[in-house]
TrEMBL record, chains A, B:
Biological source species: Prunus yedoensis var. nudiflora
Keyword Transferase: yes
Span of domain GST N-terminal: 4-83
Localization, UniProt: Cytoplasm, Cytosol
Listed GO CC annotations: cytosol
Name recorded for this polypeptide: Glutathione S-transferase
Length: 232, 232
């Protein structure tokens, strides 16, 4: 049994699972990692998250906590004496939560939309939508980082985790489409931030290699295209 | 200028706007209410929420805060000396956030699905989905309220607000479909809870009358059905 009796049910390619693991790393917490098999769900997962049946689940003692951003807040609140994950000021917290929600509800669905797009025109429109989202996030970064390395200061925090967990998938999308989303001209702040984020001690061991992730992406893209194919 | 310089941009039929107003009422905070006109967006709204252009927006001094549940958390954190809205224990907070997210992502979309359903079979399936969600929420209520009036104790809090704001729309849906979702047999806990919630001092003045809301519903349903009508 780990010191804090913490288990994470997850899978290495999942950006949402990465959020929980980064938060645990920031607080220097040991945990057991249970890798779910792609395409099936363990008994423990079905018992722990009967409503959504989705990873990640953090199990603390005998208590399951579901939904990645809720897990991050939980870890920050329970181990409050460790480095802070949420900003300390309520307005900064609201701003971080706002952008995290934007990323989950708008930006990442747009990124997935590139892979699912049917035809060149739809693909280009999806790419444009992702780039517009990145312009908003660049602006948010400039405003909240105020020249520091991360969204809310000198250390990675809530919004860094919420957004940074998608960097592997962003790189895979860049590679598969022969484009560059983050560069020093269009998104100078985010380009620098991405390097710092991936090199961070809490992140580097859980950020998947782009090559390895691209293999998973090929399987998912084939599924997405198959499901969305127009009837003949 | 109100004592705390608080403005709410909203519209009376919006359940999301109600969340912000209930939270302000719990903390006994005065605010100016700016009613947005149905079908158009004020300059102040477009300036304050340029990303989503949606109500509610809370403007505190010169700072806009967007997204209803983020506003509720902001109010709870800034006026921390007033009655607490979020539960105090991290696990209870995670549980409340989990169900609030379930309501927004699954349950309320299902409720809207009843009005948008094309044909009797689709309508019945949507009703069944809403009832299944209510069974989950009844179970959650029994577990977290532990015999008390509200989801996390003797006073209304975060999850009560997140769910309770939809009671007006639930009643309208019951009325329009000749069904009863909340009753003493299927959902004894929630049926009692709904009465207590609507009678609460922080709620009663912002909960719209079912008749008045039904008028708005007719306009929205006509729109929904029009948009989703199968091609002839």
């Amino acid at each position: 049994m780990a010191k804090n009796d913490l288990k994470v049910l997850g899978a290495w390619p999942s950006p949402y699972v990465m959020r929980a693991r980064i938060a645990l790393n920031i607080k220097s917490l040991d945990y057991e990692f249970f890798e779910e098999t792609f395409g099936s769900k363990s008994e423990l997962l079905l018992e722990s998250n009967p409503v959504h049946k989705k990873i990640p689940v953090l199990i603390h003692g005998d208590k399951p906590i579901c939904e990645s951003l809720i897990i991050v807040e939980y870890i920050d609140e329970v181990w409050a004496s460790g480095p802070s994950i949420l900003p300390s000021h309520p307005y900064d917290r609201a701003t971080a939560r706002f952008w995290a929600s934007y990323i989950d509800e708008k930006w990442f669905p747009a990124l997935k939309g590139i892979a699912a797009a049917q035809g060149e025109e739809a693909r280009k429109a999806a790419i444009e939508q992702v780039a517009e989202g990145l312009a908003l996030l660049e602006d948010a970064f400039q405003k909240t980082s105020k020249g520091r390395d991360f969204f809310s200061g000198d250390k990675i925090g809530y919004l860094d985790i919420a957004f940074g967990c998608f960097l592997g998938w962003l790189r895979v999308t860049e590679k598969m489409n022969g484009i560059k989303f983050l560069d020093e001209t269009k998104t100078p702040g985010l380009a620098k931030w991405a390097h710092k984020f991936c090199a961070d001690a809490a992140v580097k061991d859980v950020m998947p290699e782009t090559e390895k992730l691209a293999e998973v992406a090929k399987i998912i893209v084939a599924k997405l295209r198959g499901a969305g194919a127009p009837p003949k």
